[in-house]
Each structure stands twice: as structure tokens, then as C-alpha cells.
Amino acid sequence: TAGETKAEETQPTIKNDASQQTNYGVAVLDKEIIQLSEYLKEALQRELVLKQKMVILQDLLSTLIRASDSSWKGQLNEDKLKGKLRSLENQLYTCTQKYSPWGMKKVLLEMEDQKNSYEQKAKESLQKVLEEKMSAEQQLQSTQRSLALAEQKCEEWRSQYEALKEDWKTLGTQYRELESQLHVLQSKLQGADSRDLQMNQALRLLENEHQELQAKIECLQGDRDLCSSDTQHLQDQLKRSEEEKLALVTKVQQLQSLLQNQSLQLQEQEKLLTKK
């Protein structure tokens, strides 16, 4: 009975190990799902930031377009100044017809100064407009490049997001399949535990009967000569009891071997789950 007691003590250890490995596998899979969820949240956050940058770039583009319109207005102002210069030249010609040479020379000098002043202002205005136009064009090109890069980046993140969504679906399907397999294995373990309990109870009953028969044999040993036939009958019963006991021990060993095989299968499932 010492070997049977040892077998009964090792069985709960095997069950506890299988249960712990099952819980560990489920915990590892939950951790991977949580990590994938964090990746999805991060991808969505980055896509939102890129969209905000695109809005800012579009606003900047509108500003540059308005600046370009202002440069064309500056050119229109330049045309107005040239018109004024032509008007002054006409006035100068009129004055040459009315005034004396000295007066005409004085007026001519004044008109020349005004003309030079207008020309200088026109040149400065034109130079400023050209510089603003060049700056606006450079900013527009830079903005277009930034916008193209932002759109490319947004498309890359969108592709990664779609790939992560597919991975999420695949992982969810695998999780449900593995969870179903774990439930099946746990049901098998529970059935094996129930059969093991029944066999142990039957074994204990046989042991009790064996002890009772042994006690009867010891009581009847003093009257062996008078009750030899009864003694032989009890010995036969004892022999049959021993044979039944050996048969039950063999069944218990077979059941323990089955439990160990199922535990190994569960460990292989947990290893596959951990690798995924």
C-alpha cells in the first residue's frame, strides 16, 4: 500500500502542473493581445498627428497664395507709378512750350528730381515685390514637399494600421481556437480525475475486505484442524481478493499513464501558444 499512497500523492502534483501551465499560456496570449492593442492605439495617434500637420500645411499654403496675390498687386502699383511718370513727362513737354528757357530749365530740374524719385521708389517697390514673390515661391515649394512627405507618411501609417488590424483578427481567431482546445483538455482531465477517484474508492474497499479476511484467518488459525475446509475457502477468497487488488492496481497505473500523456499534450499546446 506504500506504492499506492505515493501514486495518490503524485497525481495532484501532475494536475496542479497542468493547470498552472494552462493559466500561464492564457496569460501569455492575453499579454500579446494587450501589446497589439497598444500598437494599434499608437498608430492611430500618429495618424491623427499627421492629419493635424496636413491641416497646418494647407493653412500655410493658403497664406502663401494670398502673399502671391499681394505681389501681383504690387506689380499693379508699379504700373500706376509708370503711368504717373508718363504723365509727368507730358507735363514737362507742356511746360517747355509755355515757360522761358531759364524757367523751363528750373521746372525741368524739378521734374527730373521728381522723376528720379518716382523711378527710385518704383525700383525699390519692384525689388521688394520680386523678393516677396521669390520667397513665396520658395515657401510654396517647401510646403509642397512637406505636404508630399506628410501624405506619404500618412499612407505608410495607414498601411501599417491595416496590417495590424489583420494581425489582430488572426490573433483573435487563434486565441479562440486555443481557448476551445484548452476547454476540451480540461474536460478530459476532469473526467480522468473522476475515474481515478472511483478506482481509488474501489481499491480502498478491497483493502478493507482484505483486512477483514486477514483478521478472520488469524481468528480461525487456532481451530485449523476443525475448520480446515472453512480456512481453505477463506484462503481462496483471499487469493481472489489479491488478484482483484492487483488488477485494480494495474488499472490505476494505466490511468496514471493516461493522465501523464494528456499532461504532455497540454504542455505541447502551451509551448505552441507561447511561440505565437
UniProtKB/TrEMBL annotation:
Coiled-coil residues: 104-272
Keyword Coiled coil on entry: yes
InterPro entries, sorted: Cent_Immune-Sig_Mod
Keyword Coiled coil among record annotations: yes
Keywords assigned: Coiled coil
Name of the protein: TRAF3-interacting JNK-activating modulator-like protein
Organism: Equus caballus (Horse)
